[in-house]
Amino acid sequence: MKFTWQTGAQIHTLMLEPRGDHWIAFIDGESLECEIVDSRPGELTLRFGERIHTFYWASDGARRWIALDGCTYTLEKPSPRARRSDSAAQNELRAPMPAQVRAVQVEPGQQVESGHTLLLLEAMKMEIRIQAPRAARVAAVHVAQGDTVERDQLLIQLEEPS
Questions:
Q1: What is the set of domains in the chain, with CATH numbers?
Q2: CA–CA separation, 80 vs 93, rounded Å?
């Protein structure tokens, strides 16, 4: 099985191959051996050597959210819009799914580094961190704590750092 997903601006490839009672996962060319410990709807527990990890997930169309070790990751199939390099597309951060804004952690004019958490959303009892895809300056914040947002709603606009 082969899957291609996008997280932020990065595109990743995952290939899974069954090998007897375990699987080999090839992630961006690196291989990991894993064993399925438990599988339920929305939950998968895997053993990697001596380490056991439980993944939780939810989906909405082509988007997937995976929660692991307290962090939530948004995965989506690469789309022509996501691959666009025009400045408007790269400067607009939009809601990945319907959610409630739990916290706004930036304000207009603030300088942020790549990976800086800008907003916290909550959907389906999962926390979703909206993070800066690159170093930038916050041009505008279009939501406030407590707001309910729809999928693809504009949350934050970024601009080049000053």
A1: 2-76 (2.40.128), 90-151 (2.40.50.100)
A2: 16
What are 75-110's pLDDT values in tens digits? 887 755 544 444 455 688 988 888 999 999 999 999
pLDDT category at 18 given cuts 50, 70, 90 is confident
Q: What is the full DSSP assignment across 114-127? A: TT-EEEEEEETTEE
What SS3 string covers 85-105? CCHHHHHEEECCCCEEEEEEC
Query: How far is 78 from 6, CA to CA, in rounded Å?
Result: 6
Exposure of 38 in the CB half-sphere (CA atoms within 13 A): 10
Element (H, E) at 66: strand 63-68
**118 touches 110 (CB < 8 A):** no
Strand order in the sheet with 154-159: 92-94, 154-159, 136-141, 111-112
Instruction: Indicate the pTM of the whole model.
Output: 0.52
Contact 16, 4 (CB under 8 A): no
